[in-house]
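Design request, tokens follow.
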């Protein structure tokens, strides 16, 4: 329900409120368009991220199952030594891109080794480890790019959802509070001014009649 503002019913105040109302309506339209565009880009991103999350979770579940089996067959300390010194280094470059004034991360990663053959990827011999362990390592290496991409998209969703919530709050504040309150106040001032004008005309008529 609209609430009238506590202002003086003057023509100057009326003009000021009409200017505020025009700005509020223009701002509401701009924010509503921004909200709609954010949602348009957010929905496919959320669907893509959900699909990617499921794929990553399935791969990680399989890898962890194999690793758990390997640790049951082989000394845990030995397996720890096997993976203690990775043969490759992954560098991560984080940039930002702008989506409707929301700065979201864009991650690019690269592997230090140009030759990515199996011989270069591991520092241990397959003969000394169970096949479950080797399969687990393979799965983790394969899922790593998707895992990094998932981290990028999860952060994008977090930032965009926060911006959508803030934009919706501002749209609602304008739509359900500021604009109706201003319109109610404008109507009140116009009625008061009209009443004053009628009262003035009546007084002038009475004065004219008395002067005859």
């Amino acid at each position: 329900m609209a609430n009238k503002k506590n202002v003086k019913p003057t023509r100057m105040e009326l003009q000021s409120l009409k200017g505020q109302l025009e700005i509020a309506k223009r701002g509401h339209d701009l924010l509503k368009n921004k909200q709609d565009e954010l949602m348009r880009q957010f929905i496919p991103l959320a669907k893509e991220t959900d699909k990617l999350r499921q794929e990553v979770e399935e791969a990680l579940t399989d890898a962890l199952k194999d690793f758990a089996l390997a640790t049951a067959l082989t000394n845990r300390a030995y397996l720890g030594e096997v993976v203690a010194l990775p043969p490759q280094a992954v560098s991560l470059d984080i940039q930002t891109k702008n989506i409707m004034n929301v700065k979201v991360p864009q991650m690019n990663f690269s592997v230090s080794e140009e030759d990515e053959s199996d011989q270069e990827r591991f520092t241990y011999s397959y003969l000394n480890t169970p096949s479950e362990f080797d399969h687990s390592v393979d799965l983790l290496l394969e899922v790593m790019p998707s895992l990094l991409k998932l981290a990028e998209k999860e952060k994008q969703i977090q930032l965009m959802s926060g911006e959508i919530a803030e934009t919706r709050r501002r749209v609602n504040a304008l739509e359900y509070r500021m604009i109706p309150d201003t319109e109610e106040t404008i109507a009140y001032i116009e009625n008061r001014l009209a009443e004053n004008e009628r009262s003035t005309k009546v007084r002038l008529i009475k004065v004219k009649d008395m002067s005859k």
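Comment from the thread starter after seeing the answer: thanks! The chain is about 75% helix and 10% strand.
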